[in-house]
Amino acid sequence: MLNPKQQREIYDLLAATFEVGKPLLVAQAGNCLAGHGYHAKDLGYKGLNKMLEDMPDYVHFEQAHTEEGNPFWQMTLKPQEKETAPAKGEYPDDIRAFAYLPGSTLEIFHEKAAHLLQPGETPLQLIDAAYRRAVTQKSIVKENDTCTFPTGLKNRAGEEISIFFARNTRKGDSRPWAMTRVYEGKPNPENFAPTPGERANPGDALEDFAVITNWTDALRVLADMALPEEWDFRDAPVKNYYILRQYLKYTFLRLKHENKVLINDEGTFAAFNTGLLTFHYEDIYACFEKNRDPSSAIPWYFSSFCSEGSRGDGQRITIYFDQPPQPASYITEVSDLLYDTRRRLAVNYDHILTDNIGRIPLSYLRNVCSRYPKAMAIIEKAEKYRPNTPAYNRHMRELSGFCDAPDNVYLSERIRSDFKRAIEKALKRIRWDYKTVVPIYYPAYNLLSLMIPLCLDSDLAADVALLVEKTESGNYLGHTILSLPMAYLDARLLCRPSSDWLQPQLISDNEPD
């Protein structure tokens, strides 16, 4: 059970990520905590709800209802007096006091260092140990707005894993740094200064730019204005336009990189192109007014979504700007969108089947491991946890180790053969319909790649997406696999996917807790 110190740590972590006093979904808090190594079951609770109920001094926990009357759980962080920490010099004892550690960046680190984790150890603990060594050895290097230190950790190829930090600009978070990037090798910190739109968590750039008091209402207005589209995954417990919110946040980040967010000469009005169209195929713009709240560090306040020339903000766009805000650009060569089936495809099976086995559906793993009692026992343990949480990933690493054992070479070869057959079928499908391949944009790394559907359980439905990159020779390299929700969110940044295998109404993101 949680002790007082753990309760305060969890509260501080959530308060650094979400706005105090504003309701948020319990699932959002769960994802945040899991990314930082906290999971209710690991802390002695049956579920996240039970854990939150044990924190009445910090959290108001209640059941609410959608407009359709469907119940869901939400929580509100209670305001607290800030603790006055004892002076610890420049470097605190715990890395969580030194830097904000986004769950998405921790997951990237986890992929590269999974083979180093001991049973029961989390990625956070591994990073913290490296940080403590760096403090003791005085090996933390700062360069302008970046910071790094040698982790002493190596990937499977023997290359050093490097971690970079940027200045933390998150509202209400006093920690000086935020972990932003993970690399293999020893890059020069001077080459990785934060780009103009980059924040501790790239997806937070819009929320650091403007106050949006009610996301759900704003997104509902935008969805009603735009051409009809599914903005939630199948079986989502609450229809809250999750896909649209992620789309808008990362579209804004791209526009910041391209300097396409326009501000008038007086500095009183700002706007950007959402990339969405009205029923009359007019561009939809997001408009902002200067934030007049002197207590807020956020410069802008959301005003409205509009088309140019419409009443209010639509007319201001015409008055203030010579040209209206332009949409984000992702594509430089049209050929980047097409997959050339005449070229070779090499696949990094070791990385996919060892480091990313947790992205493979459990339904397939149960089927292929049915003759191996020990493997089935591991899968049964994993089923109790939500995918991508430390506990789930720990069991997946155990399953990966079981499959890689010399005594289980037949099982490992069976899985590899299934992937090869799935890839062969996908390539045949691409020859028949080039639109089978879906282009994808990676916001964190500013990369454009292609995705190929892999059908493992049944030829009728894709289970995962293979991410492929075109090399200098013109051949292709398959780097990793993505779950279908991950694939759709990144693909939607470019355009609404038209391929029949990547549709939100066919994708379930409602995983067990």
Please tell me about this protein's structure.
The protein has helices at residues 4-17, 26-35, 48-53, 95-98, 103-113, 123-137, 205-209, 215-225, 242-257, 313-320, 349-355, 362-368, 373-382, 390-404, 409-432, 484-491, and strands at residues 24-25, 59-65, 71-77, 99-100, 141-143, 146-154, 160-167, 177-184, 210-211, 262-263, 269-277, 283-290, 300-306, 345-347, 438-442, 447-454, 464-470, 476-482. Strand 6 (146-154) and strand 7 (160-167) form a beta hairpin. It has a five-stranded mixed β-sheet. Strands 9-13-12-11-10 form a five-stranded mixed β-sheet, sandwiched between helices. A five-stranded mixed β-sheet has the order 14-18-17-16-15. It has 513 residues and is an alpha+beta fold. Helix content is 33%, strand content 20%. The chain is built from 16 helices and 18 strands.
Please give a quick description of this structure.
The protein is of the alpha+beta class and 513 residues long.
